[in-house]
Structures are given as structure tokens and as C-alpha cells.
């Protein structure tokens, strides 16, 4: 075996280090999944409410929600987590690390989801709302039963793409000392004196996210095909 290849294997693909790191990585993977499973539906729900508020609210409500969208899209999730986890205690409000990480992810992604839903709802022809009103539907029922299903078809790809980014962003939870996958890999690296755990974490991220990335690509191709018709 060439010496360079042997050194590469010893430093990045060491079997003994991998075995020692595995329990920590499994623990980190479980926490990463829990963060994503909690923040993702909450972010989607808040984003949907923001989008509906922009579509149905008055002028003042729309301006306030657009400010919300711009504000939280401009704030990096890392900065939000610092402000929530380390800043709020100075105001007398301390959140557990898990809750602080979820809140930071939800607030940040509510801006992106809100803009996606707002744009999707605005893309539905106004005639659809007029037809729903002619059938006697209230604006809220028309938005829920007629406009929203059409908007969802138009924004499925960006929603999935942003959800993929949210899962990646769970790594910032390490700042709040949460043992998510990346932090667990770093702890394992310190214990084994070998970067193999980091390579294993990268592979786990790939296995976890590649099917999701493939789904996003398929949705984007379908959306482009519809627009080309």
C-alpha cells in the first residue's frame, strides 16, 4: 500500500477510532433528528400563518409581517441562538438548550417559509378567489380550500429545499452545548485523538440528507417542466 494512502486511512478512516466513536455519534444523530423533527413542523406552521396573514390581512398587518420576514431572514441562526440562549437570561428568561435551539431555528426559518408561502399564495390567479367568493366561501375558507392547495403545488420545491437547509442548520446547537451529531463527533475526536469521527459524522449527514436532496431535485425538475408548458 502506498505510504500516502496508508497515512490517509490511519488518520481519517481508522477502524478502532470508529468503533469507539460510534455510541457518541448515535446519540448525536438522535438529537439532530429530534431537533429537526421539532423545529421543522413548527417553522412550517409559523411560516404558513405568516403567508396567510400577508394574503388576508390588512395593510398594517402585511407591513408588520413583511418586516418579520425580512428581519429573521437577515439574522443568521447562529446569532439568534446566541441572543436567545446567552442574552435572554440577562432579561430574566432562561430557556433550556434544546428549547433555545428549536426557537432559533423556528424564528430564522419562519422568515424563509413565510416568504415562500406569501409568494406561492400571491401566484394563484385572483380569479380563483373570485370564483370561491361566488360560491359563498369566506376569504379564509377560500384561502384554505382553494388558494392554498394550488399554492402548495407551486412552492413544494422551495419548501423542501429550505427544509433541507433547516436540517443542516441543526449543527449550530453545538453552541448551546447540545450533543448533536457534529458536537458528538468533535467530542469523540478529542477522545480518540483522531479525526475519523468527523468523517463518520459527514457520512451520516450524507446518508441522512441525500434522499431528501434527491427529492428536492425531482420537485425542482417537475416545477420547471410545468412552467415550460
Automatic annotation (TrEMBL):
The record, for CDD domains, names:
TM_PBP2
Q: Which InterPro entries match?
A: AA_ABC_transptr_permease_3TM (IPR010065), ArtM/GltK/GlnP/TcyL/YhdX-like (IPR043429), MetI-like (IPR000515), MetI-like_sf (IPR035906)
Where is this protein found?
Cell inner membrane; Cell membrane
- The name on file for this protein is ABC transporter permease subunit
A Pfam family assignment: BPD_transp_1
User: What parts of the sequence cross the membrane?
Assistant: 29-56, 198-217
Query: Where this protein primarily resides, as one coarse class?
Result: membrane
Q: Is the keyword Cell membrane in the record?
A: yes
The record's function comment reads: Part of the binding-protein-dependent transport system for glutamine; probably responsible for the translocation of the substrate across the membrane.
Please provide the record's keywords in A-Z order. Amino-acid transport, Cell membrane, Membrane, Transmembrane, Transmembrane helix, Transport
Where is each ABC transmembrane type-1 domain found?
Answer: 29-217
Q: Key word Cell membrane present in the record?
A: yes
Q: Which family does it belong to?
A: Belongs to the binding-protein-dependent transport system permease family. HisMQ subfamily.
Q: How does it sit in the membrane?
A: Multi-pass membrane protein
Amino acid at each position: 500500500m502506498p505510504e500516502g494512502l496508508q497515512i490517509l486511512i490511519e488518520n481519517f478512516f481508522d477502524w478502532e477510532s470508529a468503533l469507539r466513536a460510534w455510541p457518541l455519534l448515535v446519540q448525536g444523530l438522535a438529537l439532530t433528528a429530534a431537533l429537526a423533527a421539532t423545529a421543522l413542523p413548527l417553522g412550517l406552521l409559523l411560516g404558513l400563518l405568516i403567508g396567510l396573514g400577508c394574503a388576508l390581512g390588512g395593510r398594517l398587518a402585511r407591513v408588520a409581517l413583511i418586516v418579520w420576514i425580512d428581519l429573521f431572514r437577515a439574522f443568521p441562526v447562529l446569532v439568534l441562538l446566541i441572543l436567545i440562549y446567552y442574552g435572554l437570561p440577562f432579561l430574566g428568561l432562561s430557556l433550556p438548550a434544546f428549547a433555545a435551539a428549536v426557537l432559533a431555528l423556528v424564528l430564522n426559518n419562519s422568515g424563509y417559509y413565510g416568504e415562500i408561502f406569501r409568494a406561492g399564495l400571491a401566484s394563484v390567479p385572483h380569479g380563483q378567489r373570485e370564483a370561491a367568493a361566488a360560491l359563498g366561501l369566506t376569504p379564509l375558507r377560500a384561502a384554505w380550500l382553494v388558494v392554498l392547495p394550488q399554492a402548495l403545488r407551486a412552492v413544494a420545491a422551495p419548501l423542501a429545499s429550505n427544509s433541507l437547509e433547516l436540517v443542516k442548520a441543526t449543527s449550530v446547537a453545538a453552541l448551546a452545548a447540545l450533543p448533536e451529531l457534529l458536537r458528538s463527533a468533535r467530542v469523540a475526536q478529542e477522545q480518540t485523538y483522531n479525526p475519523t469521527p468527523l468523517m463518520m459524522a459527514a457520512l451520516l449527514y450524507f446518508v441522512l440528507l441525500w434522499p431528501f436532496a434527491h427529492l428536492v431535485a425531482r420537485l425542482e425538475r417537475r416545477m420547471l417542466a410545468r412552467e415550460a408548458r
